Amino acid sequence: MRHYHARLAPVAGLICALALVLAGCGTTSGSVDGSSRYVAGDGSTVLLAPDERTAAPTVVGTTLDGAPLDLVSMRGKVVVVNFWASWCSPCREEAATLEKVYGQKHSAGVEFVGIVSGAKDSIENARAFTRRFDVSYPSMFDADNSLVLAFRGALPAAGIPTTFVLDRQGRVAARALGAVDISRLLGMIEPVLGETS
Questions:
Q1: Where are the transmembrane segments (predicted)?
Q2: CATH code for the domain in which residue 98 is found
C-alpha cells in the first residue's frame, strides 16, 4: 500500500499543475458588465461620446519635483493622464511617444500628467525613470494606488500602462490599455481637442 501512494504522489502533482495551467488558458467574455463599458484585454481603446462621459476623479497632490498638482486647475484644456511604473517594460517603450506627443500638442492646449503606480515602485526609481527618458511633463507618485482605484468609477484601468484622455470639462473621454504608439494616442486626443464645447 505504501508503494502505491508513493507512485501516485508525482502523478497527483502533475495533474494539479496541469489543472492550474489549463485554468489560466480559459477564455472569458470581453465585457465585465453592460454598464461599465470595460473591455478586458491588452491594446483596447475606448472612446466615449460626450453624453457618455463621467467626471474624472479628484487628483490632487505633489509632483515628483515637489510642485503642487490639481487636475481641476487644468479644466479648459484636454488632459492626458498616463499610469506608469518604472519597472514596467511597456511603460519604457511608450515613454518617447508620450513625450513626443506632449511636445507637439502642449501649445494647442493639451496637458499631460503621469501617475506612478507606487505599490511596487519607489519615488527614487520614478525620478530616475523621468530623467532616463527625458519626461518633461509632471508625474505624481501614487504610493497606495488610490488614484488608480479612483479612476475605476469613470472607466476602469486594467493594468500598467493605462492612458486616459480627459475633455475640457474634466470628464473621461478615452482610455487605452497597454502601451500607446503615436497614431493611437493622437487618435484619442484629436477628436477631443476638436470639440467646441
A1: none
A2: 3.40.30.10
